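Students often ask why inverse folding is considered easier than folding. One informal answer: many sequences map to the same fold, so there is more than one right answer. In these notes we will look at a single instance of the problem. The structure comes first.
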């Protein structure tokens, strides 16, 4: 075999080796991408935030609940209340307009992990059945109609989303969430009426 043919053969072998390496690298990258997508899909949270009005045998209630209908935990980083497009620092004014005789309960949401299938009452205002009519309950719920909630939450792999409003609000992906300094629901504690036990302790 002449030197020229040998050089050409070596060139062809070298090119084939490079092409094979490139193909192998692409296959490995594609498999990694698919595996990462599968991992993210296996822990994909879908956070829904809804207002509710309910009537039981003994009580009438209204409030706000967080539900994770996805397949992975939703790590809540911030909850912001907005009215007429402007952030508001407190829900106390809205709560002050509620009919008297209610009981207020809340759950801190910032920093909480909402597991798949969990339903958490972030805010529940309850009245004894005999103290408020259904029509008055509906009127009370309308007092919250101008409030929107902006929630930013992430998956365990650091993918993050925001959801705005209540009910059928769509989520939008974001690069990251910034943790809130406070919690809009926990801050309602300053507006909550004292319980009978707390009144006794104060006296």
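Output (designed amino acids):
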């Amino acid at each position: 075999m002449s030197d020229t043919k040998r050089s050409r053969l070596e060139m062809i072998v070298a090119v084939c080796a490079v092409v094979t390496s490139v193909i192998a690298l692409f296959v490995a990258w594609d498999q990694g991408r698919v595996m990462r997508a599968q991992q993210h899909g296996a822990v994909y949270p879908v956070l829904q935030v809804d207002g509710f009005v309910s009537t039981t045998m003994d009580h009438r209630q209204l409030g706000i609940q967080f539900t994770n209908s996805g397949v992975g935990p939703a790590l809540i980083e911030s909850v912001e209340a907005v009215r007429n497009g402007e952030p508001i620092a407190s829900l106390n004014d809205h709560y002050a307009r509620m009919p008297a005789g209610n009981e207020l309960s809340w759950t801190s949401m910032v920093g909480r992990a909402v597991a798949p299938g969990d339903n958490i009452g972030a805010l529940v205002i309850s009245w004894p059945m005999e103290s408020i009519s259904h029509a008055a309950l509906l009127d009370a719920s309308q007092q919250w109609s101008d409030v929107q909630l902006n929630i930013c939450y992430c998956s365990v792999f650091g993918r993050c989303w925001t959801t705005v409003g209540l009910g059928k609000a769509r989520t939008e992906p974001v690069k990251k969430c910034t943790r809130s300094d406070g919690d809009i629901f926990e801050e309602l504690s300053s507006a909550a009426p004292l319980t009978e036990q707390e009144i006794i302790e104060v006296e």
